[in-house]
Amino acid sequence: MPDNRQPDREHLSLDEIEAREQEEKKQNRPRFNLFNRAYADGAGVERDEIPIADNPTLPNFFKLVGRKINELLTVNIIYVLGNFPVFFFLLAMSGYFSIHTTSPYYAVYAPLRGAMLFRNSPAVAALWTLYGRQAEITVHTTADKILLGLAFLLFVTYGPVRVGLTRNLRNMFRGKPVMMLSDFFEAIRRNWKQALLVGILDLGIVAVLAYDITFFRLNYSASMMMSTLFFLSCALLVLYFLMRPYLYLMLVTFDITVPKMFKNALYFTVLGLKRNVMVLIGTLLALALEYALLIIYFPLGVIVPFVILPAFLMLMGVYGAYPKIKEIMIDPYYSET
After folding, report:
1. Rounded CA gap, 249 and 170, in Å?
2. CA 217, CA 219: separation in Å to the nearest integer?
3. What is the rounded distance in angstroms from the CA atom of residue 335 to the CA atom of residue 255?
4. Is the model more confident about 30 or about 16?
């Protein structure tokens, strides 16, 4: 019988050993699996690479996003599920429970209708053609009002959820290990009173500024004062948008009162103007891309906010704000001690 056994390695030349090892690698190579590749280990970091927290540049931001993409997806899921009252608002605005009917578009509809019933002349018919149109209107039902009332629970959930996720994002930026759910609930447990208060104030300020902008925009051409107040409201909204990341970062990092948080956040917004402008530009670009997706392919544009967009924007805010907080409030303390 022929001997099919391969010779021992000690009787092979170096070239034959290398050829055998290459053949074994080909035979043992795992098959392609999309899910395995999604959770495969990365290439790691170089031994002499500077930590991203010590070198928070623009290229390093995208490097951080690439490394933490799985964690960002989890952050976004927690953000969406934690702020579940938003779904009540969306359901109420969808019109599913509303009454859809029509109503006269012009105020002269009733007199014209009476004139037509009394004497239908060519002139009245011409006016009816212009001013007899009907407009579609939506009447909110009791179910809509209940859903809108439940949507106000967002004032209770938003602050704690934002605080817990801010702590996780801060630790991700610093390169610290993150236990997503346990760290999230621990941050809420330790700061729930201030988180609830800051969340209510935060949403209240945003709602007031949004109402002011809408009101002054509708009355933009009424007077010079209305035009001035419109631009002033827009400037205040941008200023407050840049302050928000500092508020939640200070809440989870320091033991200070809420008024001091707002005062320090205003200072940091001015002192970190360069980084804040970059955050503002990045946010506008991300929102513009989301708007483009809604126009180009609406289903994809709807899905993106539920998958990655809020977590990406929050990480951008933490990336821009934390280095300035560390420079002014953390580093001097450790240098003195």
Report:
1. 8
2. 5
3. 19
4. 16
Q: Mind listing the pLDDT tens digit for each residue in 217-264? A: 888 877 888 889 999 999 999 999 999 999 999 999 998 999 999 999
The DSSP secondary-structure symbol of 107 reads T
CA dist 39 and 37 (Å) reads 5
Q: Compute how many other C-beta atoms are within 10 angstroms of the C-beta atom of residue 283.
A: 17
Q: How far apart are CA 52 and CA 68, in angstroms?
A: 12
CA geometry: angle 21, 26, 32, nearest 5 deg: 145
Write down the pTM of the prediction.
0.79
- Separation of alpha carbons 313 and 241, rounded Å: 12
How would you classify the pairing of strands 134-139 and 99-104? antiparallel
Distance, CA of 302 to CA of 290 (rounded, Å): 9
Cβ pair 129, 58 in contact under 8 A: no
Residue with tokens 């809604």: 294
DSSP string, 189-228: HHHHHHHHHHHHHHHHHHHHHHHHHHHHHHTTTT-HHHHH
**Which pair of structure tokens corresponds to residue 258?**
């809420």
CA–CA separation, 320 vs 246, rounded Å? 9
SS3 of 102, please? strand
Q: How far apart, in whole angstroms, are the C-alpha atoms of residue 278 and residue 321?
A: 11
